[in-house]
Amino acid sequence: MKQITQTGATKEEAIALALQKLGVSRKQVEIEVLQEAKKGFLGFGARPAEVRVTIIEEVTEEKEKGQEKLAEDGTPEEVKASIEPQSEQSNDEEVQEEEQPDPIESAVQYLTNIAKAMDIHDLKIETEKEGKTILFKLESEKAALIIGKRGANLNALQQLTQLVVNKTAKSYVTVRLDVENYRERRQLALEQLAERMADKAIRTGKKVALEPMPSYERKIIHNALANRLDVETYSEGVEPNRHLVIEPVK
User: Fold this and answer.
1) Domains in the chain and their CATH numbers?
2) Distance CA 50, CA 217 (A)
């Protein structure tokens, strides 16, 4: 039995991070909420959500079907609300396959609904699939609102959309969200930041701690400095406050 304990700014974020690390979809695991997230007041008393995600052991096909039905019946209310009611069960596997909602269409509808809730009514979405990665390219006059400060809104939407997609995907897939090439511009900015902070670490002879950022952004900085022999990089802390440290090599 393989399991992982994961924290996140929200319960959904913690689950998304755990699923990504385990490389499985939501229907392949059991989820136990150890701690609900708390926003706190004026920044004080805040705490992350914490979940324990356990991969369901392999069973026979007959038992697996029974477990899948049980998993559907036991889905949390907040997830049930986003799932279309199931039609009558059929013994024909092909009919069951057709009744399964398309993961990409479900995600597009989810993003559209979220945009409307943010008073964004001109959202356009294009999708590209490459291997086990699905890219959702968003376009809107209110792109800045979707992105948020330093990509916070976009990152949160990406993690939630990944949950939506992996509810019905046959196998685990990675979801990427981008708005008007923000990811490319952000990558360039992070690579430039990496060089500046590395130079600062060498100049002062002290390690430099960067602000908390998602794992894939930390990886961009790791890669940007991989060929430098005068500094080393590593991550410290726990999600959602995990951050990267640049330290001069002595």
Assistant:
1) 1-81 (no CATH), 84-180 (3.30.300.20), 183-248 (3.30.1370.50)
2) 22
3-state SS string for the chain: CCEEEEEECCHHHHHHHHHHHHCCCHHHEEEEEEECCECCECCECCECEEEEEEECCCCCHHHHHHHHHHHHHCCCHHHHCCCCCCCCCCCCHHHHHHHCCCHHHHHHHHHHHHHHHCCCCCCEEEEEEECCEEEEEEECCCHHHHHCHHHHHHHHHHHHHHHHHHHHCCCCCEEEEEECCHHHHHHHHHHHHHHHHHHHHHHHCCCEECCCCCHHHHHHHHHHCCCCCCEEEEEECCCCCCEEEEEECC
- Count Cα atoms within 13 angstroms, Cβ side, for 72: 13
pLDDT tens column, 50-101: 888 888 865 334 444 544 444 444 444 444 444 344 444 545 554 444 566 7
Q: What is the pTM of this model?
A: 0.55
